């Protein structure tokens, strides 16, 4: 089969990327510079700067003299490679085999792909339009060899689709720089007045090799398609995805369950072999009428246990509306993690926080009632009661500090302290009686005060003097006075109930 | 002759318990030391692997109930066990559990909006074998729903605690015991001023195959102590007056 290649050339890859991130830079001359041998050299110029005569490789001082008010950004090493890799991965939608062509291009092997977009010209135009819409100025061309596509993308008409019969003619009309030659060879050709490929392509090969080295012949052959050239495709990790097309549209709940079971079986097997497990999974059901029904689940720890995952899905399968029928099921592990190797305990004394059965229970609860409802607390180093604990991020999280219990803490704590009426004798003595919710409590025993200062670096306000008190019925309360006794703005509150 | 008779009666009582479906305690059962209260239970062992019901009418008694349950949990949750605490309007202060010998990070709190969700979550949690205990705070629960929980527990042998706060209806539910915990004045050992260890009047109003009664317990040094001296019996007197 005749091979077809597309070369994409990003005219201003790095500066375009800057403009995408900071749209204010559009139409402004700016350059990217990097230090080199004690001076600043320009490594990339924006389109506006290029129009004013600046080019890469100039000294920054010269550029500043030519264009006053020139903006300069620091060069980020490897930025181009990173950007091209990202763009290359994006182009995998057009072809399975895409390669990065440093410093400023991409190469796509598009053999057999173009007809899916309705022909070669619409295909290439689609790519160019999409990249332009992103904000990248590109030149692109399609030809029979990598060398030809590369040359035409940069030196020919952009968006050109060159067939095999006209390819040689087009290449011959291009300047020698289109052949990806080294600077010395190019300047030599320039010196000899060979301004077009056609002016030396017909020369004897032995003479060319003697004069310019083997590289010129090699590149010429590659451009003319006489020599095969390979590209090194970017490898994209295949997603953890399984598809199940159905011969007949599925209408029943049983059918959906069977489909899910099959998908889980194959995908779990694959994940198990790779030592991975589901963290989130998405089941898509493509309906005959073109709509897509989706359900997703999440787990608290990576799992490839089919039965457990099926149970998580089970509750949600009801929300799938088959309508006229489902013709395709796709199950994807949208997030997969390494499975911690489960160690079998010899004596199963019960569940622990990190047991699998407990994690599975939490998964079921999370999927039914939501993760916000489920909390686990860890101690935090604060004396302020409301801040003395924090929510744990996961079941496996360990405590970093110990829980304190040297001071009395109530069993029940009101979320917001409630004001109470109190009669307290002398400063810093516990109250004699207090009224809470219309009921009078006479205090028989008391402990305190325990002063807890407000953490001024977190919030402002008065300190609290806590008293543990017991009334005549034996009910124990946690009261506090906010502020000093001798100041006017002190108030009494009830905050908790002791066991 | 007399001792023989009492032996026969004891043996008969044991046989009756077996016939009534009350399993004898096995080696795996965690024995909760409740002091004198243990005598009220069949075989004199705190029944684990079933449902216990607690009733409270005021937040003070909810706090006392919480303390008492935490005391029970400290034995049930030995060696890194976990428990699930489910409620709709939780005011429990997690760090306080440490006073009863529980690591609060071993407790999973589930805070929900509706009673229906609480019941579903309780059932799911009770079905999970190996959990030390499941605590559910509820207002009302009907008999049928409590049967569901009881059935779940019979299979998984998890201990469940239902705290009924301000129950509108005093209906019977499927539970091994119905408790009422109310606070009692504490006392420091040698008449020192200040508040002592938490003390409660523990009332067992119903026990399956057991003997109901009232006891005074104190949580001191990580275990329950039965108070026998200086009987105050305030709650009982109050109850009689009402009755």
What does this structure look like?
The complex is a heterodimer of chains A (499) and B (243). Chain A has 499 residues and is of the alpha+beta class. Chain A is built from 14 helices and 21 strands. In chain A, the strands form 5 sheets. In chain A, strands 15-21-20-19-18-17-16 form a 7-stranded antiparallel beta sheet, with no helix packed on it. In chain A, strands 5-6-1-7-8 form a 5-stranded mixed beta sheet. A 4-stranded antiparallel beta sheet of chain A has the order 9-12-10-11. The N and C termini of chain A lie far apart (84 Å). Chain B is globular and about 60 Å long. Chain B is an alpha/beta fold. Helices cover 30% and strands 24% of the residues of chain B. In chain B, α3 runs parallel beside α4. Chain B: It comes from Chitinophaga hostae. Chain B: InterPro entries: ImuA, P-loop_NTPase.
Feature tags:
heterodimer; A: 499 residues; alpha+beta; Alpha-Beta Plaits; Dna Ligase, domain 1; 7-stranded antiparallel beta sheet; B: 243 residues; alpha/beta; Rossmann fold; 9-stranded mixed beta sheet; globular; disordered C terminus; DNA/RNA_pol_sf (chain A)
Count of helix runs of chain B: 5
Tell me what the CATH architecture of chain B is. 3-Layer(aba) Sandwich
Helix content of chain B: 25-40%
> What order do the helices and strands of chain B follow?
HEHEEHEHEEEEEH
Number of helices of chain A: 14
CATH superfamily of the largest domain in chain A: Reverse transcriptase/Diguanylate cyclase domain
The strand count of chain A comes to: 21
Strand order of the largest sheet of chain B: 3-2-4-5-1-6-7-8-9
Task: Give the total of domains of chain A.
Answer: 3
**Mean pLDDT figure of chain A:** 86
| CA-based gyration radius of chain B | 18 Å
Integer average pLDDT of chain B? 85
- Main sheet makeup of chain A: 7 strands, antiparallel
Organism (chain B): Chitinophaga hostae
Protein name (chain B): Error-prone repair protein ImuA
InterPro entries (chain B): ImuA, P-loop_NTPase
Pfam families (chain A): IMS
